[in-house]
Amino acid sequence: MAVLTMAKAINTGLAVAMREDPKVLVMGEDVGRLGGVFRVTDGLQAEFGEERVIDTPLAESGIIGTAVGLAMRGYAPVCEIQFDGFIFPAFDQITTQVARLHLRSDGALCMRVVIRVPSGGGIGAVEHHSESPEAYFAHTPGLRIVTPSNPVDAFTMIRQAVAHPDPVLFLEPKRRYWEKAEVDVTAALPPSIDLFRARVVRRGSDATLLCWGPMVRTCLEAAQADTRDLEVVDARSLAPLDLATIVESVARTGRLVVVHEAPVTGGLGAEIAAAVTEACFYQLEAPVLRVGGFSVPYPPARLEDIYLPDLDRVLEAVDRAMAY
Amino acid sequence: MAVDGGPELVQLLTPEGVLVEHPDFALALDDDEWRTRYEHLVMVRRLDAEATALQRHGELGLWAPCQGQEAAQVGAALAMRPTERIFPTYREHGMAYVRGVDPVTLLGLFRGTTLGGWDPAEHGFNLYTIVIGDQTLHAVGYAMGAQRDGAAEGVLVCFGDGASSQGDVAEAFVYAAVNDAPVVFFCQNNQWAISEPLERQTRIPLFKRAAGYGFPGVRVDGNDVLAVQAVVTAALERARAGRGPTLVEAFTYRMGAHTTSDDPTRYRTTAEGEAWRLKDPIERVRAHIVRSGIADAAWLGEVEQRAEALGEHMRSACRAMPDPAPASMFEHVYADAHPVIDRERQWLVTYLAGFTDAPTAGAGAGVG
Ligand SMILES: Cc1ncc(C[n+]2csc(CCOP(=O)(O)OP(=O)(O)O)c2C)c(N)n1
Ligand SMILES: [Mg+2]
User: Is the pLDDT at B365 greater than 70, yes or no?
Assistant: First the structure.
């Protein structure tokens, strides 16, 4: 057991994956000598060399496009996009190539590519450093999207993502990078199917709070602060969604509030609401409610506390759900 | 370690402050003009140091220092007519200063009170662009517009050595070339893109890339305010005359950290910094104007006082800068009324009004 921050847990998971499989590469801007702006790749170039830990030119389309070629050649690149807002120059490569080549080659080409993205807000950053772009990618068939909410999951999930034959977008809640937990760094790797399982992180009976990444802690705090008996489910996987776990929870509680940082409009909450309504229509005591960012570009840092869902916003939605 | 710009470097004022001739570029300044340049450089360095200090004191979330690049920025901005548009990155505080953007206004973006801060048309100075390289295409389009208006007008766009790798920048070169767009690509090669040295971006000097696109490229000593102005002036004249784009590579050095979040000791040597310190853009101007009697100690002292006053102005004005009202995040998202915006704004206002302890409930200042 070791006490690790989430950043260090991912770092440790990457190191383990690289030791186990010489085909695993790490590539991105400033990931080598600097160890990444969040130090998630710290020490990897020193251990594995410049051939395996590549400081790429400043070009995101290039990072992903060359990762496609490396994957075709049997390598397993783990790409870092420095910040969420800078994934868009690579949008074309991700959505038209990475997501489709397995299909177009009738399964002959594996896109074993992991795209790590420090995501979400809450760190007082300047523009383009606080985005939650998951909905764009969840809308794209062919991609898998996972996001850990704590160091223990981060250590396991990054290794599972690297081992997986499909492309995986790995969203790292950057404001939780420095939170610590005890991690068993010798634990065997659970089967890959576990990567796509949601987890009930707090049992409750009055309503379900479904969240992921940075919002899991927010929802747990809200549940702890409230007198009602709230269940908290960490989705962990956004594509595919683990509807079985989600539906099982909602069927018991009868109420669902989905909480995410991304704007509510066209967000994943809408997809979840539709799926849950279909599956639990007769168990629902209230419509599925969504708490998320407002439908505006992520605001300047001095307004982010208002923009981001917090304990009060979550509980306000619970109030509404209970009032039906 | 890149310290020497090589034989193709255009230089008119040596690091020792000696004027030298160049076969292709010349610029004569009168005493007043020399003093203006010196004062600009000192003010910009002060502005930058003050903003860095404000970040350290928690008043700004971040600052991207321009220390070491003052001459490149001041020289290029002075080459332009006030009506000609500049497209900056996020580090062009020196250009902003020359264009009359109040340094306090610049702080808003870094303090987190605004995503922009000024009206681009008012200062002929576009908004800062954080996504690397995007603005190069905007500048080309803007220049294509000037071309269609029949205006003898140049446009200048800034980008870094790292940005030179972006696809958008390559596209901007192509678009500018095939359209003979009146644009000057002004690349401040400060040798680093965060932790990555120039070798991670290119294997030929950046100015030579222009040849592959079919327009001229020039490498100028970016720490020489006179040479930068001369070279950019020539490029602008070419643009205004309808002869198309030029790439100007200003060979310079980022003396400070990438931003206040960065720790350059992790990736570069102090020896490199020392070598570049000898090429400081301000020292050479001071040496020249003192030696040639353009400025005396008394005047230099006055400039110091004005710089100090600027620092004080920034300190007090920054601390007094109010947080934006919460509902302001809904303003200007669209030019026309929008039902989702109206609904969400109304919801937020009502929601915040429900807190008796509004500020501690995360409502911030200016609720309602
Ligand atoms: C598209 C994009 N990718 C990554 C970043 C993160 N980033 C900000 S500045 C920077 C380095 C820029 O280097 P350069 O172009 O040389 O300009 P400099 O900062 O040295 O002035 C990087 C990678 C970004 N802002 N935009
Ligand atoms: Mg640079």
Answer: no
Could you confirm whether B351 is annotated as catalytic? no
Per-residue pLDDT reduced to its tens digit, A228-260: 999 999 999 999 999 999 999 999 999 999 999
Residues A19 and A35 in one domain: yes
- Whether A218 and A153 map to the same domain: the answer is no
Q: Does A305 touch chain B (CB under 8 A)?
A: yes
Q: What is the mean pLDDT of residues B52-73?
A: 98
Instruction: Output the CA torsion sign for B188, B190, B192, B193.
Output: negative
Contact A184, A154 (CB under 8 A): no
Average pLDDT score over residue span B201-211: 98
Neighbours of A35 (CB within 10 A): 22
Q: Same domain, yes or no, for A283 and A144?
A: no
A136 touches A112 (CB < 8 A)? no
CB pairs under 8 A between A and B: 126
Q: pTM of the full predicted structure?
A: 0.97
Does A189 lie in the same domain as A204? no
Taking CA–CA distances from B200, the nearest residue in chain A reads: A57
Our count of domains for chain A comes to 2
Q: How far apart are CA A22 and CA A20, in angstroms?
A: 7
Domain containing A33 — which CATH number?
A: 3.40.50.970
Q: What ipTM describes this predicted complex?
A: 0.96
| Residues A56, A180 within the same domain | yes
> Which of B62, B132, B190 has most ligand 1 atoms within 8 Å of CB, for mutation?
B132
A303 lines ligand 1 (CB under 6 A): no
Nearest atom in ligand 1 to A29's CA: 23
